[in-house]
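Batch manifest line 418
LIGAND: iron/sulfur cluster
JOB: complex structure
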Amino acid sequence: MFSLLSLSQSDAVTLGVFMGLIIVAEFCYIIYLFYSDYRERQAKLEEAESVEEYDLVSTGGIPENAPQYILNVKDLKQWFPVNRSFFGKPKSFLRAVDGVSFDLERGKTIGIVGESGCGKTTLGRTILRLYDITEGSAVYTDEKGNEYELAKLKRKQLQPLRTQLQLVFQDPYSSLPPRMTVGAIISEAVRVHKIVPKSKVHNYVLNVMKHCGLQPHYYDRYPHEFSGGQRQRICIARALAVKPKLVICDEPVSALDVSIQAQVINLLKKLQRQMGISYMFISHDLSVVKYISDTIAVMYLGNIVEMGSTADICTNASHPYTQALFSAVPVPNPHRKAKPEVLQGELPSPANPPKGCKFHTRCKHCMDCCTETEPQMRELTPGHYVACHLFDEQPSEEAVEQGNDVTSVDENEQEQKD
Ligand SMILES: Nc1ncnc2c1ncn2[C@@H]1O[C@H](COP(=O)(O)OP(=O)(O)O)[C@@H](O)[C@H]1O
Ligand code: SF4
Ligand SMILES: [Mg+2]
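JOB STATUS: finished
ARTIFACT:
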């Protein structure tokens, strides 16, 4: 063979040694790369652990004398103009949020639940003043007791509140800028709002990442390198890095697998305990909402139809719509047969909502009065409100008959609630 290549034996030996050296050198280089990467990770880990001065959760918790409520929403409306006249005057409106009222306690979570299109996202965005408020009020109270009527504040006046009010979006895939590294994404708002001195930003961001379950070496990586759950952690880290007081989480786990959903929700709960944050948690999934919320508000076509503590809603769901939502929650028991109640028809258009009770077109308990008169919120038990004619103070005979039907919750519904 050597003769074929016209090499002498000594040349072949030299070539062999040379090739061998190249292979050894490449091998050493690969080991060096692994080692330097390992050293870099270790250094970042040590750096992240050594930061105590500027810690995400060090100043957390709720001051003793802070007012009880962080947010008071009263009769909030968000109507979008859908038809305009020749002169640009709106002729008709889409009533996405149509008179919503609730109070949120500091450090607690209110879950907003309802099917797609009922106005949950619009409610969250309206409170954050990403839309101008059509009517009603939303009062944010800070820890010192200063009250801000969000509906009346001008854009410039809202600026200082932007760090205190944050939003976590539903889709972790499109809400992260693809050309920025994780470190740059999280540090952007920290720099802009001067949360920590410039020289401390890098360490602070590593600290935030640690609290959100992100490895320090993710700092220089790009969003496309991560799974959905990790991306949502990045979104949460970005929102919490500015130390907000109220975070509106808009379907934050809807795009994730069930096991990852639990991890992300546990992370949100842990950070809430450590930092004293209040959450408005929006989801179409009652089984997710009941796991994280202290209070649950059920929305239908722009209105809250039932609201109460999580225990009230889970053990004594009273509105026919809430009961239908509960019946659709899967039962984690193969020996129990689930009988999900299929709601008749589609969600009506908020641009042309039904007269009377907006749910009457799909309600199996619908009575004559339901098609004419809008039901008012009634307090069934302290803190448990429902808007349905079945629970009117002086119910009609029809309502009494229907009411017997509703309150005798069948076995399946009871099992669902268990
Ligand atoms: N910017 C907008 N302009 C006009 N209509 C809108 C706008 N945003 C949302 N809507 C409408 O408001 C209704 C509620 O939407 P949304 O708040 O996104 O519901 P959900 O989050 O509960 O799915 C829908 O009918 C939607 O089409
Ligand atoms: S008011 Fe009437 S239509 Fe509406 S939920 Fe109650 S029973 Fe059903
Ligand atoms: Mg939505």
